[in-house]
Amino acid sequence: MQESSTVPELYAAFRRQFMLCELKRGEVMAILTDQKTDRIMADTAFAAATDLGANVYELYVRGVDDRFMDSDPFKAPGITDALAKANIVVSFFVGFFSAWEVPVRAAGGRVLNILDTPEQLVRLQTTPAVKKAVLSGGRRMGAVDTVRATSAAGTDLTWKIDKELPIVSAYGYADTPGSLAQWGQAMVACFPLDGSANGRVVVQPGDVWILPYARMVQSPIELTVENGFIRKIQGAQDAFAFRKALEFAKIDADDMAPFAVSHLGWGMNPLAHWSDIMRFEGSMLDLNTSMRSYPANFLFSTGPGPKRKTRGHIDMPMNHCSLYLGDEKVIDEGRIVCSDMIADPRHVGH
Questions:
Q1: H or E stretch including 51?
Q2: In 118-235, where does DSSP find H-type helix?
Q3: By CB atoms within 10 Å of each CB, which of 35, 209, 230, 263 scores lowest?
Q4: Is the pTM above the cut of 0.90?
Q5: C-alpha dihedral (244, 226, 291, 170), degrees to nearest 10
Q6: Each residue's pLDDT tens digit, 148-163
Q7: Residue 212, preceding bond cis, omega within 30 degrees?
């Protein structure tokens, strides 16, 4: 655990987080850990939940590795059944798109992912004001069929929203039955209808890699998107790295799944800052949430989703973009312009 966050401070943050998650006395909490989990973090979570009156147990698994799709410790009989009996599952590794989450949430269980350092968890912890702003943004997105992202650099991407899938309205805590959250994350996103994304995406220096790397973009990447897939990648060093990341994720020569456009949206946590990439470049644990959540970044991503499985995934928060929901501009060159989507008026964008 980083020395900048003391155990008492972290304990207080866990108590607040579990209270935001509506943890009630007598509820069952499963804490899900693996070989990489910080033991002080896990033990502090256990203590805070116990002190709030929950019945807590820890489930430790080995072999969680999303680089290999067949590496799945949850195939063992009984593990998912045990998780599905919990009122809330706290996972210390990435659970998004995991098969075990489906029965847990179907049974009404809440799922909270904790993926950052203690310092970042304490700083990025969200509030009901953030929830209100995020839900407002989610309602706005859910009310339209088409979204468009543009930028002065040349981005002009349009897509239709897949109405069979829920809008992602992530506000940092799991407080309703079946909800899924990541501590500190505040963003709105959707999945495009298959084949509907078309246009150009121009990534600029200063934009951010957050998957599969944790670094700042150094040279432009120009992407041509046709019918939902990236068909052309142009540029210098970063474009080369982008192409290699997608090619590495292919399971055979004809596999185009890594090149598919995945979730698209924008960040909304006023406590998250683009400048973190300057401070923590190379440290995924310090950037996991802040880079996806800083206000008004346009999050462009590739690869997997609820309807598509692939071992490769790129998340790339982009700066200085404008976003239109239908005909309404809600983000103007990297600034949120709708007052109901601003949790703190001092932090509307980068």
A1: helix 39-51
A2: 118-124, 128-142
A3: 35
A4: yes
A5: -130
A6: 999 999 999 999 999 9
A7: yes
